[in-house]
Amino acid sequence: MKSLKSILNIGLLFLAMHSLCLGQKHDNRWMLGYISGPNFSQPALDFYFGYPDTIGFYGYFLFYNANVSMSNAQGALQFYTNGTEVANKLHSPLAGSLNYNAGVINANNQPLQMDQSVIGIPDPGSSSNYYLFHVSGGPYISSYQPVQLKMSKIDMSLQGGLGQMVSTVNALSTPLLYRTLHAVKHGNGRDWWIVIGGYNSGQFFSLLLTPNGIDTTVISNTPVVFPFGLIRGQCSFSADGSTFALTSGDLNQVSATNQVVVYNFDRCNGNFSHRETFYFPSTIDSTLYGCQISPSGRYLYVNTGVNLYQYDLSAPVISTTKAHIAIYNNFQIPNSIPFYLMQLGPDNKIYMGSVGGSKYISVINYPDSAGVSCNFVQQQLQLVANYTGTFPHFPNYRLGPATGSLCDTLTVGIATNTIGVQKSYYSNGNIVIELIGNFNQNLSYRLYSSSGQLVQKGMMQCERGSPCLIPVDASTNSGIYIFQIDDTKLYSRSKVAIIKN
């Protein structure tokens, strides 16, 4: 018969998994919009059953560029916004949201013509509250830049479940960069990093959203500066949150700054580090628009309005892996940019929108396959009405904790027994670990630097009556490290000093 402790541990694990499964459908409904009014049906996608069902709705405002469509954990629509106005699930104005994002570009309640200028985040401390992070401002120096970042809170328990915006505050007043607003889960799997670039500085700001609100702001200095802002382009996180990429496209072919920039991101501390920058030549095909990373994080897709390319992020030099996937098939769409922003869907396919009035969405069906095997199909989905540049901007709501990392502080220890460490030290190329108790088995371990970076992992042999040994890679430098035993049933974490002569 199982012990009460085992039953409780299994129950806790089940509840944690059940909660995780329920919290996966915030990106279920995509309100695409365009022309609005009582006689104009607007298009939308519904992923409730795992595939994109094309549906329509009658909204009261226009859409153009800015878009957040927020569903609850079960996939039911809660509210949506065009960056200027907010509608509730009945397609009426959300209480308290009038002029919530006031600024020069969105004066007179015109739809905000700024891509990726608003993003919606569930409150880490409440299942009924949500945050909108949104940019606006003015007067602008260049192409709606610099911008300021604001934060609005929506309480869905008010107004009989239709919700109400209860506050709007300045989240960051530093001059900021348009087209760089995004979000990713903290390594603890609960909190969120809200990230945005600094204007003409090379800086990135990471705001930590906790159940108590904004807890801290981390500033990363990178070598890539956009002196005139981002005229065109898109930013994207990998599904695991470890890679951040952006495209910068300039319509000026003489002084074009068309480039792809790839960064590493640390979910524990919120730091960006520059990995690689590569340029597109100043030609008619150089204006970069969409940017999206495949579900596994292996491939980066970018487009230029008429061409789609794939890059291998696992390569030492990303730029050398450029593969041409497709060119626009000349399907007739008047006044259009046929290849525009891209968004990873709940079904792990990448959806590509267009600008200029279209009923069609193109799809990368197998984005983790190399080259043309990714199966990019142009005009694969036909909508019930036209849309233009109005793809919703979603983070990965399904991302869990960075399991085994130093910041995985909320889930470590579930259904485990803690092993006591009597002594640990470095000797003759090995970390020597003396455990309390007798163990005669292989144990899984991870070794981290003092900053939380994974250095190595593997299995260590523990023989009864002898200490456990972890062979240290020759490339590992002297310093303070943290080793963690994270076997399926056993857990321990401790510091060790590695001193090499």
List keywords for this structure.
Immunoglobulin-like; mainly beta; 4% helix; 5-stranded mixed sheet; disordered N terminus; 501 residues; 4-stranded antiparallel sheet; Methylamine Dehydrogenase, Chain H; 1 helix
Topology at a glance:
Blueprint: H1 4-22, E1 29-31, E2 42-46, E3 53-57, E4 68-71, E5 77-81, E6 86-88, E7 118-122, E8 129-136, E9 147-155, E10 164-176, E11 182-185, E12 192-197, E13 203-210, E14 213-221, E15 232-237, E16 243-249, E17 259-265, E18 272-279, E19 291-293, E20 299-303, E21 307-312, E22 323-327, E23 342-344, E24 350-352, E25 358-364, E26 376-387, E27 417-418, E28 421-427, E29 430-435, E30 441-449, E31 454-462, E32 468-471, E33 479-486, E34 490-498
The overall strand count is 34
Q: List the strand order in the largest sheet.
A: 27-34-33-30-31
Instruction: Return the CATH topology of the largest domain.
Output: Methylamine Dehydrogenase, Chain H
Structural class by sheet pairing and helices: mainly beta
- Which architecture name of the largest domain does CATH use? 7 Propeller
Uncertain residue segments: 1-22, 412-416
Number of helices: 1
Fraction in beta strands: 35-45%
**Any idea what the shape is?**
globular
Which CATH class of the largest domain? Mainly Beta
Radius of gyration equals 24 Å
Q: What is the total number of structural domains?
A: 2
Distance between the termini: 54 Å
Description:
The chain is mainly beta and 501 residues long. The chain folds into two domains: 7-387, Methylamine Dehydrogenase, Chain H; 416-498, Sandwich (Immunoglobulin-like), CATH 2.60.40. It is 4% helix and 43% strand. It has one helix and 34 strands. A hairpin with a 6-residue loop joins strand 7 and strand 8 (129-136). It is globular, with a radius of gyration of 24 Å. The N and C termini lie far apart (54 Å).
